[in-house]
Write a structure and sequence with these properties.
139 residues, alpha/beta, Nucleotidyltransferase, domain 5, five-stranded mixed sheet, 3 helices, 5 strands
């Protein structure tokens, strides 16, 4: 015979704090051991452009850059001394055109810095609309 009342059994508990600790350690391990792509390892394939003839824009300034880094504004050879002076040349070429579009035609082998120089000069001149020309891919 049992004279003692039945003892209540404790319900089993799941303690989540050690589980969270283990998950955080696994997450940190994965973050540390993951290999990310590096910019030096990127393979870049430049796209070719199939375009129709460009529309005629009366409010455009054509800037050409050849392979040697020489500049021409609206087909007039213009020396590049600094971005501010070239910005003045762009303002003279605009000759009162409201919000002109600066169209940069750079040779494929032109130095990248030459194109950046033109963009910087356009920024100094206050022209924010810049576009680039391409040639159609050979078929």
């Amino acid at each position: 015979m049992r004279f003692r009342p039945r003892a209540f059994r404790d319900e089993p508990e799941i303690n989540f704090i050690p589980l969270i600790d283990v998950l955080l350690v696994i997450l940190i391990f994965l973050m540390v051991t993951t290999t990310y792509s590096r910019y030096a390892e990127l393979q870049i394939n430049l796209p070719s452009a199939d375009a129709e003839s460009p529309p005629d824009h009366p409010n455009r300034i054509d800037v050409s850059v050849d392979a040697q880094g020489n500049y021409a504004v609206n087909r007039v050879v213009t020396p590049f001394a600094d971005p501010a002076a070239f910005g003045d040349a762009l303002r003279r070429a605009a000759a009162g055109i409201k919000e002109p579009i600066v169209v940069i035609s750079a040779d494929a082998k032109a130095p990248h810095q030459s194109v950046i120089n033109v963009m910087e000069a356009a920024r100094i001149a206050g022209y924010g609309r810049i576009t680039f020309t391409t040639q159609s891919a050979k078929r």
